[in-house]
Write a structure and sequence with these properties.
This protein is mainly α. The chain has one domain. Helix content is 73%, strand content 0%. It contains 14 helices and no strands. The chain has helices spanning 5-8, 12-21, 26-32, 34-40, 53-73, 78-99, 103-108, 115-141, 152-155, 167-196, 199-213, 219-235, 238-258, 263-269. Helix 10 (167-196) packs across helix 13. It starts with a helix and ends with a helix.
């Protein structure tokens, strides 16, 4: 018969007394004491709801077959190449969900979303949006806005490739595409790495795959991937990382439409 929860594990004082009188029993409590279990295991969930080899197969197809074919065969179709990655993400996630529809909850998180985790994602998103006006204020406060390097008339040409967006494009860029990217790279790929690898190794590899998958090995994309991984580890849910990703897209839109003088700094980062 199992013991009650209150007596299942010894208190810290009892544990010290037991180990002092019976040193050989330390092995037992290294296995059963919950604190040791948490520190011992680098993973968050011991088992995956899909075979781990599916991750490597998906990445191999994406990087070695799909992306090269898209850029070679459809190099003249610029509009299709812009959404080609999202098409692959939709197909891959659809195959996983058709095989087992219950995996949608697994993609979203390993536990229910808590208020603190939601607030953490919102706070991170607010901070990344505030970076743009803070950088602009710093340039004006130091007088650098009078330098030719930061003049609006000089950098406006750099922003001409970002025309005003219609409502459909805003919806796709701020909600639909971030949901696909986060579900694929964070909910599917990074989670699989986290189960099979040490936490730090999984973060490094997950961040690299995220940046390479966006074909942008710059500071901004690497930072977005790293923060997304960190938010997942902290919250064990996809929503905080998704909020941060959406906020990053909004910050980029704010920069391209309202702060052209920041182009030299932003282009260096992104």
């Amino acid at each position: 018969m199992p013991r009650p929860l209150s007596t299942q594990y010894p208190s810290f004082s009892q544990l010290g007394l037991i180990l002092t009188n019976n040193p050989h029993r330390m092995i037992r409590y290294k296995i059963t004491f919950p604190v040791y279990d948490f520190m011992k295991s680098p993973s968050i969930q011991p088992n995956l709801p899909w075979p781990f080899k599916w991750v490597w197969i998906s990445l191999a197809i994406y990087f070695c077959i799909y992306s090269p074919c898209i850029h070679v065969v459809f190099r003249e179709l610029r509009e299709f190449r812009q959404i080609a990655d999202e098409v692959f993400f939709v197909i891959t996630l659809s195959v996983l969900l058709v095989h087992n529809p219950n995996r949608f909850k697994t993609f979203m998180g390993e536990r229910r979303l808590r208020i603190g985790d939601l607030a953490m994602g919102i706070l991170a998103g607010i901070l990344v949006i505030l970076i743009v006006p803070i950088m602009d204020w710093g340039i004006r406060a130091t007088g650098l806005n009078q330098k030719e390097f930061f003049l609006d008339s000089v950098n406006q040409a750099l922003m001409e490739r970002h025309p005003p967006r219609n409502l459909f494009r805003i919806f796709c860029e701020t909600l639909f595409i971030p949901c696909l990217i986060q579900t694929f790279f964070t909910g599917f790929v990074f989670r699989s790495f986290l189960v099979r690898m040490k936490t730090l190794t999984a973060v490094y590899l997950g961040t690299l795959v995220f940046a390479v998958g966006q074909f942008d090995l710059d500071i901004g994309t690497l930072g977005l991937g790293a923060v997304s991984c960190g938010l997942w580890i902290k919250a064990r849910h996809l929503v905080p990382a998704l909020i941060f990703h959406i906020s990053s897209v909004l910050a980029w839109m704010l920069f391209t439409q309202s702060y052209p003088r920041l182009a030299p700094l932003i282009i260096f980062l992104f």
